[in-house]
Amino acid sequence: MKKIYLLFIALISIQAYSQIQITSTVEYQGYDEGQAYFGEGEYQIFLDNVDGVLDKPVILVDDFDPGDTRDLAGIYSVLDFDGGNIADILRNEGFDFIILNAPQYITDGKDIDGGADYIQRNAMVLRELIDVINTQKVGSEELVVFGLGMGGLISQYGLSYMEQNGMDHETRLFISFDSPHLGANSPVSFQYLLNYFGKEQNNAEADLIVESVLNSPASKEMLIDHYLAHLANGSDFEQDPSILLPTGAPGFRNAFQTELDNLGFPQNVRNVSLVNGSNNGTTIGTPGLQIIDTTLDLGGGVTADIILHFTPPVNQTNNVTDFTAYFAGFPVASFSADSESFSYTAGLDSTPGGMGSFSAGLEGITDPTIIAFLAALEQEEFSSIPTMSALAIETENDWYVSPNMGDSPFVASSISNNNEFHLTITAQKAAFALAEIRQEPLGVSENDFSTKYTLIKNPVGEQIRLKLNSTHSYNNVQYSVFNTSGQQIISERLQNPSEEISINHHLNTGIYFLNITDSETSFNVKIVVQ
């Protein structure tokens, strides 16, 4: 009998480690589509290294990936950090990882680039996978869904859709990793320039980037500011000077955000987040910053002067894109575009946020003009996933201030003082994610803040007591307590505390949020007062 069981396990392991295709049984019709299509995906099960049985599943959902440049192993490697790989660590503890990828495919005669397709259609694929895994798993362990970037939107949509349609997702935890719940950003100055190069200068590679990346359904759903919204009537590159404020792609952006907001976050799971943006208002450059001022050789004796800027400070207008081409010293072509900021917040490009870079995703570019442009950049990084968006804080219009963590729908978050590149896993974030997935006794994510601060008891008594680790330094520590409405009730700054922090309170029975910020890190944790 034992030999039969071992053979059975071996067969499951062989099957589980192969790549499996999956097609949704729920179709979706996009905003610009004449009919609905069934989404497709591919997944791979990485069984644990303890018993090799699918019984503690964690589903990892990929980020925005036009052209399907990341294979399943590449998605797995996103969980690398200086200390190992989150999936490897958990698989050695009995957890199983399922990696979901959105490939390129043809369905009913339509070419679909899954990694840049409609978020809703990909969410229906995730819904299908959740049903498959819940059917195949051994035992009653509930799922963990871990969404990377856009994968967090797919996960939010898929889980909420299932709840609102009476489908049991059997999921206990949703981890959103630097996901743009209120929208993403790509500098509109660069969008204008790429589109001008592609449409007016007949640059094939620039046009390919515009059509496959910027004009993909996912980009048009996520980008808060999209060049298409600013085009003059009848032109495919000239700007309408009356449309300068950030505006999303017509027919896509507002419709998607409304749809996502109406669904909300899943109610029957624990929602937590990893955020790569700064928690204290640290910016990426400054509003209106000059990105580049250079002269490029376009070939055939033609040169071009190019100047780009970040979007402007609060309530100001500036030129973001300026292009003038010369032949023998005489101007032969020109293009210019401006941008305006709202009265309540500066432009998106320099907000605290998970950082993107202009060269990211352009590694295969061979066009010498684009290569020379990238080499001449004065500012490579920009805000891709603003902190407020990653925390889904809808109550704050100024995206440059420190976030009020009590206003976030996430019950716990890991966020640093500094802006990090999108999908960067630090040791702090790894510890947070591991603790959440493990469900350690008393919930380490709620009681042990990466070993630096330990909440001695939760629910708390007459004092909120935090034990300090002697191996760490504690400089400029500030603690704040918020109620569930986001109102700050307690706040104090301590210069150099040692051993323990005791917070006296007269809080009524209920749930509160404790935020701890010091010179190195920031933590947000839910506390219960009985």
Give a quick rundown of the structure.
With 530 residues, this protein is of the alpha+beta class. It is built from 13 helices and 26 strands.
Keywords:
single chain, disordered N terminus, twelve-stranded mixed β-sheet, alpha+beta, 530 residues, four-stranded antiparallel β-sheet, Immunoglobulin-like, 26 strands, 3 domains, Rossmann fold
What does this structure look like?
With 530 residues, the chain is α+β, with helices and mostly antiparallel strands. The chain folds into three domains: 2-23 and 42-178, Alpha/Beta hydrolase fold, catalytic domain (Rossmann fold, 3-Layer(aba) Sandwich); 188-244 and 285-387, no CATH class; 441-530, Immunoglobulin-like, CATH 2.60.40.3080. 24% of the residues lie in helices and 32% in strands. It is built from 13 helices and 26 strands. The chain has helices at residues 2-16, 72-77, 86-91, 119-136, 150-164, 188-199, 204-214, 217-222, 253-263, 368-375, 387-390, 427-438, 444-447, and strands at 19-28, 37-46, 57-61, 80-81, 84-85, 96-101, 104-107, 110-113, 143-148, 171-177, 270-278, 290-299, 302-309, 317-327, 330-340, 353-357, 381-386, 412-416, 448-449, 453-455, 463-468, 477-483, 488-494, 500-504, 510-517, 521-529. Residues 1-16 and 441-446 have low confidence and may be disordered.
